[in-house]
Automatic annotation (TrEMBL):
Its EC number is 2.7.1.39. The gene is thrB. It comes from the Bacteria. Catalyzes the ATP-dependent phosphorylation of L-homoserine to L-homoserine phosphate. This is Homoserine kinase. It comes from Flavobacterium sediminilitoris. Residues 218-288 form the GHMP kinase C-terminal domain. Pathway: Amino-acid biosynthesis; L-threonine biosynthesis; L-threonine from L-aspartate: step 4/5. It is found in: Cytoplasm. NCBIfam families: PRK01212.1-4, thrB.
Amino acid sequence: SNIKIFCPATIANLNCGFDVMGLCLETIGDEMIFRKSPTKGIKITKITGAELPFEIDKNVAGVAALAILNNYEKDFNPVSFGIEIEIHKKIKTGSGIGSSAASAAGAVFGVNEILGKPYSKSELVHFAMKGEAIASGSEHADNVTPCLLGGFTLVRGYDPLDIIKIESPNELFAVVLHPHIEIKTSDARAVLEPMISLKNAIKQWGNLGGLIAGLYMKDYEIISRSLEDVIIEPLRKGLIPNFDKVKNSALKNGALGAGISGAGPSIFALCKGSSIAKNVAKAMENTYLKTNIPFDIHIS
Ligand code: HSE
């Protein structure tokens, strides 16, 4: 029998939480289908929506699926069947909303279901990171965690992996504008500086603490003040045409905060309530229409 799953897009970083904060988007995502087959091993049988390799060791979903399957055989029993995977991409690669994470998280989730759910969600995050690593060149979990757990998530620590699901206020809406240019995560990480000033570190961890507190207190003012990034955004925003203009139009029209989604180029805004989100989306859209770069925009 088939298992068909939805693999949601995600916003990583959320300005003040580089490599640790993430948010799951409800309305954008890929689809994957899994089925048992008599031939042992993992096989990708169909890919639509993107040009991706079918070779297991070159495909994000393939690597992640193999990581969990190999581990299962080590931890439990040899598996007597194989697993076939179909990948139907809706999230564009290099868009900044966790395309590779959706494939990696989807693959481990699907394989875990086929195996009879031997692993917990946090163990799945660990396997999904293996797939994410081949796409971005670094093993970060800030997209795969919200993709698997939903809502807001915090990666409190990487060694050992310690993930926490964060309470989220239900009036929050995310607007995501995706300019149709591609930014590789590895390129967006190459512009970062390895050292940061104590002054900026203090601002950033104050904001991250504030964001978490604001989410738990459902205090939109605190959330708004905390959605600031003094470390990563200044170095990356030059990679995204018209970033400042779009961000300012979102803020002027009532967004709580706005910034780079993941490694970019997508630009996100968080809003309180759907009518503000609609106004913000309109304003961001109008701003981007003045450029000649095609884009799409979503509210989630
Ligand atoms: N935290 C990562 C980054 C997410 O910003 O580089 C991108 O995949």
